[in-house]
Amino acid sequence: MAKVAVLGAGSWGTALSIVLADNGHDVRLWTHRAEQAEEINETHRNNKYLDADLPEGIKASSDLEASVKGSEAVVFVVPTKAIREVAKKVDPFLEKEAIVIHATKGIEPKTMKRVSEMLNEELENYEYKEIIVLSGPSHAEEVAQRQPTTVTVSSLQIEHAVRAQNLFFNESFRVYTSNDIVGIELGGALKNIIALGAGVSDGLGYGDNAKAALITRGLAEIARLGTSLGANPLTFLGLPGVGDLIVTCTSVHSRNWRAGNLLGKGDKLEAVLEQMGMVVEGVRTTEAAYELARRQNIEMPIVDAIHQLLFEKRDAAEIVQQLMTRTKREEMDDFASILRKDQGK
Ligand SMILES: NC(=O)C1=CN([C@@H]2O[C@H](COP(=O)(O)OP(=O)(O)OC[C@H]3O[C@@H](n4cnc5c(N)ncnc54)[C@H](OP(=O)(O)O)[C@@H]3O)[C@@H](O)[C@H]2O)C=CC1
Ligand SMILES: O=C(CO)COP(=O)(O)O
């Protein structure tokens, strides 16, 4: 069994630590707050973030060097905005034999970089092709209860993805592999924007028809942008694509859905984020996707609408009206263009 360092003691870092400890691994759950490490080690719980008893195999620590030293795998699970800071801090201690995995879902505003690209820039000894992402429809709350969950791990070097698959795979946590890291990271990050929209729709009092429309047309936007950036269009029909989109748009566990729901009910963004107390990745990813869509010259009306709501202080009901009254068009236009692109036409 391996020593594994999990960097980030929020809800997802804690849930992934449970999976690893269930598999018999010796888990170091690193937090930047010493008092949180003490609390976890004394109570075997991480109450602020997850309602679960933690297995004995998890030891929390605020000592980064001790956490990663001798680890066979290092798993980054801090929010996107903290990735560079934590990667810079951990770089001097990383041993080349360790595989680097991340389970963070976001795109960096301004640089428009995916998390694996940010890690590649910050970690001296790792090549881009070695970095692994873990993503899929997986709310921490259900993983902690060992409810059946499926995710995908991806790396350009498939043997790295297989090592991650072996590390996490168990009877309630089924892990697939893929080499489409671009599609998998984009699917996981962009669905958060659509989940904000699904929450807004519910907050406004709209029903299942509206939500199904958002999910379906949201998937078309994600696939259009993703394909323009080199992703395999089929990835968006998989777990880290439509799978994660469904779970995030329809679950009360989703922080993005919950934040959107409060916005739809009329609360202000700053108040909503303060109230959440956990990361709502879709907000910063909206900034990045809005710019990416312009750079790639891709039409993304739902992303534009969420951008207007979050950053241009537009009224939610007005934005829905604007989406509904866009120019008439043929439904499968976007898919036809994705297929043509995939076939090199
Ligand atoms: N929750 C889930 O079900 C899932 C989440 N994800 C993704 O995982 C990532 C992490 O999310 P999640 O765990 O839910 O977020 P949470 O908000 O639950 O926790 C974030 C954690 O990161 C810590 N943190 C924040 N900034 C820093 C920093 N600069 N240095 C060190 N630690 C820091 C926080 O510390 P502090 O307590 O001090 O604020 C906290 O422990 C996100 O990208 C999310 O999209 C992916 C799949 C499922
Ligand atoms: O990515 C997730 C589930 O797969 C978690 O989504 P939220 O961050 O919206 O809770």
Automatic annotation (TrEMBL):
Its EC number is 1.1.1.94. Belongs to the NAD-dependent glycerol-3-phosphate dehydrogenase family. Catalyzes the reduction of the glycolytic intermediate dihydroxyacetone phosphate (DHAP) to sn-glycerol 3-phosphate (G3P), the key precursor for phospholipid synthesis. PROSITE patterns: NAD_G3PDH. Gene3D superfamilies: N-(1-d-carboxylethyl)-l-norvaline Dehydrogenase, domain 2, NAD(P)-binding Rossmann-like Domain. Its main location: cytoplasm. It comes from Aciduricibacillus chroicocephali. Keywords: Cytoplasm, Lipid biosynthesis, Lipid metabolism, NAD, NADP, Nucleotide-binding, Oxidoreductase, Phospholipid biosynthesis, Phospholipid metabolism. It comes from the Bacteria. Sn-glycerol 3-phosphate binds at residues 105, 136, 138, 191, 244, 254-256. It catalyses: sn-glycerol 3-phosphate + NAD(+) = dihydroxyacetone phosphate + NADH + H(+); sn-glycerol 3-phosphate + NADP(+) = dihydroxyacetone phosphate + NADPH + H(+). One of its GO terms (molecular function) is glycerol-3-phosphate dehydrogenase [NAD(P)+] activity. Pathway: Membrane lipid metabolism; glycerophospholipid metabolism. It holds the Pfam family NAD_Gly3P_dh_C. NADPH binds at residues 11-12, 32-33, 49, 105, 140, 255, 279, 281. Residues 180-321 form the Glycerol-3-phosphate dehydrogenase NAD-dependent C-terminal domain. Residues 3-159 form the Glycerol-3-phosphate dehydrogenase NAD-dependent N-terminal domain. It is found in: Cytoplasm. PANTHER family: GLYCEROL-3-PHOSPHATE DEHYDROGENASE, GLYCEROL-3-PHOSPHATE DEHYDROGENASE [NAD(+)] 2, CHLOROPLASTIC. The active site is at residue 191. InterPro entries: 6-PGluconate_DH-like_C_sf, 6PGD_dom2, G3P_DH_NAD-dep, G3P_DH_NAD-dep_C, G3P_DH_NAD-dep_N, NAD(P)-bd_dom_sf. This is Glycerol-3-phosphate dehydrogenase [NAD(P)+]. The keyword NADP applies.
